[in-house]
Amino acid sequence: MLGALWAEPRPADPPARVWRDWALVAVLVAGSFVEMLLRDDRAWAPLLVSVSVVVAACLLWRRTRPLAAVTVAFGAVLAFDVARIVAVDATGLQSIAGLLVLPYALLRWGAGREAALGLGIILIWLPVTLIAVPTTPAEIVGGYGLFLFSAALGAAVRYRTRSHDREIEQVRLRQRNELARELHDTVGHRVSAIAVQAQAGRALSAADPKRALATLVTIEEEASRTLKEMRALVGVLRDGTEADLAPRRGVADIERLARPGGEVLGVRVQVSGDVDAVDPAVSTALYLIAAEAVTNATRHAAGATQVTIDVAASRGQVRLRVHDDGAARTAGSAPAGFGLRGMAERASLLGGTLQAGPDPDGGWSVDASLPHTVRAS
Questions:
Q1: In sequence order, which residues have a C-beta less than 8 Å from that of residue 80 and are 6 or more positions away?
Q2: Angle at alpha carbon of residue 18, lines to 17 and 20, rounded to 5°
Q3: Boundaries of each Histidine kinase/HSP90-like ATPase domain copy (predicted)?
Q4: Which residues of the chain, if any, have pLDDT below 50?
Q5: Which residues contact 16 (CB under 8 A, 6 or more apart)?
Q6: Long-range contact pairs involving 266-269 (C-beta distance under 8 Å, separation at least 24)
Q7: What is the per-residue pLDDT for 60?
Q8: With contact defined as beta carbons under 8 Å apart, do 122 and 70 qualify?
């Protein structure tokens, strides 16, 4: 743990120097001159003002060079306190209270080794200044407490900011995953359907030109719908564009996936139970899982002639099973990509489960179980 703290880098992008920093320096320098004018002992005035100006100037570099600022400021005050102990008969200035800002900046903006070295310099200075000025035990405890509190506050702000940045990054990652899943499940599915229809049209072009022409019409319609969905998705991502709140496809639309066998893989759909009462989010997820499973079977089920989709809604649960009669496959030969992962994520987000793998009776099966109603979180 100590090694990790020592190797910790500086926080990225420290704030630039602004007018408030110059105002703080101006107030501290002006305060030191005013305090010097109001004092009776002015014998060491140039030395006292010089130390005060050095401390105030170091505040300008407290974010970009925190260790250097601590070293110069506390080094100057340490040299002054040693001189007070040895030869100089002068009391300090209250205007060097700007030193309290530096431990905060050190822990907030410094690297791990800079924070350790800077704290060491501060802890060396504290007993020297307490020797230079006779103090009570309560004042000693208070002095250490003030500087340690400043350092602890800087560390707390630093780690709170880091935690906030991590939360933002996690939100962005979830948004990217959701966007990837939507692209894959909507646009990707339609593009796959277009590819399948194009293959069928090519096979029919010589033997049955009329059916090939009908296939081209279907491809055109699918392409138009795909383009429309893509534009809607891009529109939602643009600033100032409202999302399309029109109802999305659901369980009732799964029957549209049915198609006779022949040049392309046949799909049979069977729906039972009260599917109309299923939560809209669950209904949409079931449709997208079914469509993706059919697409995977079309692409990867070697020798398959038919895909069977069974949807059964019972009290509290909705079950979906998609099975193809292709050649037996092992789990290692499962279709790679984002399809299976996206289906599993979609089911998990709604509190359901999804399993996909080779069926004992042959072929490949996708089994999903989702709650009838999504609980509000």
A1: 47, 51, 88, 92
A2: 120
A3: 283-372
A4: 241, 243-246, 333-336, 376-377
A5: none
A6: 266/305, 266/306, 266/307, 267/294, 267/306, 267/307, 267/308, 267/309, 268/306, 268/307, 268/308, 268/309, 269/309, 269/311
A7: 92
A8: yes
Show the CA angle centred on residue 242, arms to residues 173 and 338, nearest 5°. 35
Q: Ramachandran region of residue 363, left (φ > 0), alpha (ψ -120 to 50) or beta?
A: left
pLDDT at 246: 46
Give the number of other Cβ atoms within 10 Å of residue 79's Cβ: 13
Domain chopping of the chain, boundaries: 2-134, 250-377
Residues sharing a CB contact under 8 Å with residue 121, sequence separation 6 or more, in sequence order:
70, 71, 74, 75, 78
Distance, CA of 291 to CA of 259 (rounded, Å): 13
Structure confidence at residue 172 (pLDDT): 79
List beta partners, residue 20: none
- pLDDT at position 2 is 67
Give me the architecture of the 250-377 domain, per CATH: 2-Layer Sandwich (3.30)
By three-state DSSP, how is residue 319 classified?
strand
Q: Which two tokens stand for residue 57?
A: 């100037």
Amino acid letter, 135: T
Of the candidates 339, 51, 46, the residue with the CA atom closest to the CA atom of residue 186: 339
Beta-strand ranges (E) seen in the chain are: 266-272, 306-313, 317-324, 353-358, 364-371
What is the pLDDT, as a whole number, of residue 126? 86
For residue 270, what are its two tokens?
Answer: 């069977």
